[in-house]
Amino acid sequence: MFWASYLLAVLAIILAWPVPILLWRAQWPARSPFTAMLLWQAIALAGGLSMIGAMLVYGLEPIGDNLIAGLRALAGMVLFNAPTTALGFWHIFALSAAALLTAHLVFTLLLTYYKIQRQRRRHRELLALLASPSGQDAGTLVISHDSPVAYCLPGGARSVTVLSDGLMAALEPAELRAVLIHENAHLSQRHHLLLWAFAAWRQALPWLPTTRLAQESVNSLIEMLADDVALRTESKATLIKAIAIVASGSAGNGGTGDIRPASPTVALSGLEAASGGPGSDSVRTAASRVSRLLTPQPQLPAAVRTAVMAGSVLLLALPTALLVVPGLLG
Q1: Which residues partner with 268 through β-bridges?
Q2: pLDDT, tens digit, for every residue of 3-37?
Q3: With CB atoms counted within 10 Å of each terminal CB, which end of the chain scores lower, N or C?
């Protein structure tokens, strides 16, 4: 138990600082965004588990040689007024910190979900008043907006893709199809769930700089994933032109009559590069996507992708093993 707590603490520090920074700076995620997305999720989950686990295992160390025994002894102290003399000040402090951090993370996750749902509900009410059916697809709405705007609003069976008439006038039919395929990819691949999780992580730990890097990286990766889906049926030139047209209309967007949601977790936007738009790509992200399409790099070899995914699994397994079988480490 003693050594397990220190190993978990070291792992938490590594996953909180150097590993996310190295991944954020790496170039290979653009070559395999799906693999990189799995790794980001493993880093976040393993980091949180290690952070909480380090404090929990250290706090339980005097009253059990493994996690189950320690939790049983702690339950006896809390529920049945068993003696607590075995626990020192720092052990009680560590247990309290673990409980508070766990409660904070869960509460922030639920609060973020509530806020997102509330904002989406309000946005749907605005769309019901100001948007009209596209005439092509029941799940596509059109708003009156001169600037090119495209985003999807998740909501299960009520999910919709929103386009501006300015966008529809600026794009050729093939380019418009690329936009719709891109936005539908966000919905079908449930990208809003990833945005919710990483937004909550950043809200819960704003003092940790890597939560911002993780959220930015995830936002970029989901756009690459949606681009790849659009490329299955539309040409690369068509998609590049669509991104460029939308980016060219980004300046000056966001007037008082703009009904677009202000948060990327409320709505997902794949081809809207307007700064401050709903789930919009930043100009830098839009430029990196165009650069990725103009100068494509070969996908990571299958062996490398397999190794990264296996590493992600091991990353999750390591803190889990340290928590479940700490008695093996003495």
Answers
A1: 152
A2: 889 999 999 999 999 999 999 999 999 999 999 99
A3: C
> Within 10 A of 325 (CB to CB), how many other CB atoms are there?
12
Three-class SS state of 151: strand
Residue that the structure tokens 């996507």 belong to: 289
Amino acid occupying residue 280? S
* Burial class of residue 267 in the structure, from the number of CB atoms within 10 Å of its CB (0-12 exposed, 13-18 middle, 19+ buried): buried
What DSSP character marks residue 268? B
How is residue 39 written in tokens? 């790794």
Q: Is 253 in contact with 276 (CB distance < 8 Å)?
A: yes
Interacting residues of 3 by C-beta distance below 8 A, sequence separation 6+: 326, 329, 330
The arithmetic mean of pLDDT across residues 294-316, rounded, is: 95
Q: What is the pTM of this model?
A: 0.89
Please tell me the distance from the alpha carbon of residue 229 to that of residue 251, in angstroms, as a whole number. Answer: 27
Instruction: Give the C-alpha separation, 78 to 59, whole Å.
Output: 14
Question: How far apart, in whole angstroms, are the C-alpha atoms of residue 287 and residue 243?
Answer: 9
- Return the pLDDT at 281: 42
3-class secondary-structure state, position 34: helix
Helix (H) or strand (E) holding 14: helix 2-16
